[in-house]
Amino acid sequence: MESKLLSNEVQNFITENIPTSVAKLALQKNPFPDIEWSTILKQIEAKAKAKQKLPSWFATDKIIYPSKISIEQTSSESTAKYKSSLISGKNLIDLTGGFGVDDYYFSKKMNTIAHCEINPELAAIVKHNFTKLQANNIICYTGDSATTLSSLNTKWDWIYIDPSRRNDAKGKVFMLQDCLPNVPENLNFYFKYSTSILVKTAPLLDITAGLTELNNVKTIHIIALDNEVKELLWELHKDYSGNTTIATVNLTKDKLEHFSFIMQAPIGNAKYSLPQKYLYEPNSAIMKSGGFDAVSQFYNIKKLHKHSHLYTSDSILDFPGRVFDIQTTFTYSKAPMQTYLKNTKSNVTTRNFPETVEKIRKKWDIKDGGTLYTFFTTDINNNKIVLICNKIK
């Protein structure tokens, strides 16, 4: 570890210059000739990224950061903390340790965490940081994680894996077999050392495609943060052969929005209706899940159209998503558009509608923003309709 980089003078300089543009700093003279100027600039850039995403790291003295890209790709503290609520037991091995954010939170739930990282430079940084964070029950291993797993020859309560796409997989449809490590190929090997495996994937992975590659999937967790899906978690248990549960959560500042359903269970048909008093838009985790009929059944709420994925009711419900009070509804045509929306300001959304938001804005001169929310969609009678709403939540 670079001791000069950890000096108080250099660390203070890094923290003080977080608000400053790195491009602007790069033109200045390096005040610390004994350290590469690019190294200091990279620390400033990465620490700036960590301020919102990793507040515990940001607030801890003498943390060393990897590249800005590594910070961008790592779990946020919010998702890592939620992830730790899904596991229990005494020990866990992380085969793809990375920057170690997930392991830091796993360590608060278990006695022993093994962090495996193939990149020796990153492994050294993470080991140093865990000491600073006082995460003393995390043991760091450098090298190939499969070799570490077999050489330790330990029974683990959980194996955690966050496979990364191989460089030669760019442009292909996202498949787990195109990632490192190749989880589908190695499942039997992993199950020798644990009966429970948690696999993290990017939201890009299609759920149906993932289920064709993976066996023993008990639950698929879809995790959104502030209504943006961040990751999928595939919970695998050895010898499990039952139905798969889809568990969605949207983590917000104020609360957690949960919704779950069993994929293979008979759900029944959704109910449909023309727009009533209230409009509901599911959060992004539910949108990713595809459980639209399950939402209709569970909340006893009506859909506007099979493919619109918007819901309506006459009485207000506590719903996992955005809720609106419908002010005006009309068929999409020139006269009412000119009356209600031309040369106005509104937040525009399209669902199951042939025109894009950009085209609608340009065509009717609708500026972005304001307090109105306008939905362009299709109703149960296949009519193109417009709903002007006030947002309730």
From TrEMBL:
InterPro entries for the chain: PG_1098_Fer, SAM-dependent_MTases_sf, Thump-like
SUPFAM superfamilies in UniProt: S-adenosyl-L-methionine-dependent methyltransferases (SSF53335)
Short name of any one Pfam family annotated for the protein: Thump_like
GO biological process, one term: methylation
UniProt keywords, alphabetically: Methyltransferase, Transferase
Gene3D superfamilies tied to this protein: Methyltransferase PG1098, N-terminal domain, Vaccinia Virus protein VP39
One MF term in the entry's GO annotations: methyltransferase activity
Domain PG-1098 ferredoxin-like as annotated: residue spans: 278-320
Domain THUMP-like residue range list: 321-391
Protein name per Swiss-Prot or TrEMBL: SAM-dependent methyltransferase
Species annotation: Flavobacterium crassostreae
